[in-house]
Recover the amino acids of this structure.
């Protein structure tokens, strides 16, 4: 009897899956693809852009997902059924799927991946969302040696204090082979607050194991502005803040602190106290801090070789006009990549803003590229990029 129940369940799952796939295809076909046009600057700066997100259209009640890479705009629903099963919003995962499919088998696309010239590294958990019980309270790490094609895998358990706290999730990951660093969030029952501990593992050790290297001051109860997705950014610097919830329930952020994984220390940056809601960006060129002001960002470079760390203002970055909001996303090769929520016709049926792309020279503030997604004929104003899940570069 159980055999037939399993068969019925499998057939039902197949029918539902194929039905959803057919509906998504029909929806995507009813919305025309967009193209990225250059409004200002050199269009070659957009050649390596990768974006993934959703468009908004008055044609559908559901917003179809899209990807943009190598100059092509594609709806996810236009992929074949099996390609959709393999598809990830993370471009690195898609590239690795094509070249190292066996290594990716069984690994969560929501884990952290990093590729170097010699290795591919993966770190994840049993759930990649939260750790509800003792059995899931583990880190799963895999390393592929690209020269020998040999894979090494480790399952590392975190210590658990069942009396005072329970581990919740991985809030941040930094990989600098052979070392991996993990910021683990836990909830302290006694104090009713979040707490963070930083662990490290040396993958070239005879028996790799997690070691506690830093317990964060309990008053610093939020990392990376509360953005869990930033755990995939692989940044050397961890952003820590103290957040107090008023009687209204609204969070009030306190001072910002920055932790350096490699040096295992909090950076002493007195100038941070003079900035308003600063944002940190870690790049190969060093540590940059952006300070928002009216309609612009002040860009500062941190000299981490000094103690205290000094900040030097290098430029200012502005949005295209007063009716738009610029949101810096990442820095690469001396360029700041941002997306801009540009407000459109308020009478439109589908909302009042669309998302544009802006690239600035970090040292001068000059706009080297600004682009907008439009319909191919430029006539359909009722289809807009509405939300971005991913914004980065691909080779």
């Amino acid at each position: 009897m159980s055999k037939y129940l399993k068969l019925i369940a499998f057939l039902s799952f197949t029918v539902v899956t194929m039905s959803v796939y057919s509906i998504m295809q029909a929806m995507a076909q009813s919305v025309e693809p967009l193209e990225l046009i250059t409004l200002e600057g050199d269009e070659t700066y957009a050649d390596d852009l990768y974006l993934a997100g959703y468009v908004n259209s008055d044609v559908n009640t559901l917003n179809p997902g899209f990807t943009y890479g190598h100059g092509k705009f594609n709806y996810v629903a236009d992929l074949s059924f099996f390609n959709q099963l393999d598809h990830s919003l993370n471009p690195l995962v898609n590239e690795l799927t094509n070249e190292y499919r066996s290594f990716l088998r069984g690994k969560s696309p929501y884990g952290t991946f990093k590729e170097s010239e010699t290795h591919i590294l993966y770190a994840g958990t049993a759930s990649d969302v939260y750790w509800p019980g003792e059995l899931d309270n583990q880190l799963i790490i895999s390393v592929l040696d690209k020269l020998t094609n040999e894979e090494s895998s480790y399952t590392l358990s975190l210590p658990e204090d069942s009396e005072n706290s329970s581990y919740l999730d991985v809030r941040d990951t930094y990989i600098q082979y052979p070392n991996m660093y993990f910021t683990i969030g836990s909830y302290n029952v006694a104090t009713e607050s979040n707490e963070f501990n930083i662990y490290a593992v040396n993958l070239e050790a005879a028996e790799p194991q997690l070691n506690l290297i830093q317990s964060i001051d309990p008053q610093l109860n939020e990392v990376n502005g509360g953005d869990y997705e930033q755990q995939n950014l692989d940044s050397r610097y961890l952003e820590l803040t103290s957040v107090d919830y008023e009687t209204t329930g609204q969070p009030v952020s306190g001072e910002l602190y920055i932790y350096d994984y490699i040096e295992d220390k909090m950076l002493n940056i007195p100038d941070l106290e003079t900035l308003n809601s600063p944002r940190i960006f870690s790049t190969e060129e060093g540590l940059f801090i952006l300070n928002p002001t009216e309609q612009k960002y002040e860009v500062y470079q941190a000299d981490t070789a000094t103690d205290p760390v000094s900040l030097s203002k290098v430029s200012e970055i502005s949005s295209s006009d007063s009716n738009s909001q610029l949101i810096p996303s990442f820095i690469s090769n001396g360029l700041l990549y941002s997306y801009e929520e540009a407000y459109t016709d308020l009478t439109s049926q589908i909302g009042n803003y669309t998302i544009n792309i802006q690239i600035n020279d970090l040292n001068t503030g000059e706009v080297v590229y600004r682009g907008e997604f439009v319909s191919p004929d430029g006539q359909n104003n009722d289809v807009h990029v509405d939300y971005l899940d991913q914004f980065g570069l691909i080779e």
Notes: The first helix runs from residue 2 to 29.
